[in-house]
Amino acid sequence: MNVFEVLTSLERDDDLHLARLMILLWVFGGKNRATIKGLTKLAKLDFLLRYPLYLERALKVQGDPKDLPRVNLKDEEMKSVESRMVRFRYGPWDFRYRRFINILVAKGLAQVEVIGRSINPGLTEDGVDLATELAKLPEFQDVESRSRLLKKRFNMRGTQLKDFIYQTFPEISSLSLGEEI
């Protein structure tokens, strides 16, 4: 199997996306199983998690280099991403978020809090237990470490995070809606 086939198979692997989102929700939810306030915030955090090169650039823009080594950017991540996102009205987006959250809810691993038009996902107790175990696996240690870094440095309101991403990465706003990042 060549590199293209491997990357294509990862794109279709829902379990990889579900595991990454569970770890992100676990880190942000903490022991109290708090929710992430809105899918916009979830998408922006996930953008930085899926694209560690952008995470590294975002940290540099913040001007505090002490956390840069925690990104642990690998050579293969410099030129590839595990899965594509597209430019949407509110910045980087994956049209599968609602499906991923629904799958986690159906499996009893996540819950959603709906406030007005805002969907706030969080983990259930079973979800916390599974995310804790996933984070211990070697293949998810970078996801867990980067999620903690995101919580430390980018735990802001969804609109603030969206604005930060557009200001920091102006090339995203030049893309057409629906175009791959």
Mean pLDDT: 83
Strand content: 5-15%
DSSP helix fraction: 55-70%
Largest sheet: 2 strands, antiparallel
Number of helices: 10
Which stretches of 5+ consecutive residues score pLDDT under 50? 1-10, 85-90
Structural class, please? Answer: mainly alpha
Identify the notable features of this structure and list them briefly.
181 residues, two-stranded antiparallel sheet, two-stranded antiparallel ribbon, 10 helices, globular
Summarize this, please?
This protein has 181 residues and is mainly alpha-helical. Helices cover 57% and strands 10% of the residues. It is built from ten helices and four strands, in the order H-H-H-H-H-E-E-H-E-E-H-H-H-H.
Write the layout of secondary structure elements.
Blueprint: H1 3-12, H2 14-29, H3 39-50, H4 52-62, H5 68-71, E1 86-88, E2 91-93, H6 97-106, E3 110-115, E4 118-123, H7 125-136, H8 141-154, H9 158-168, H10 170-173
Antiparallel strand pairs: 1-2, 3-4
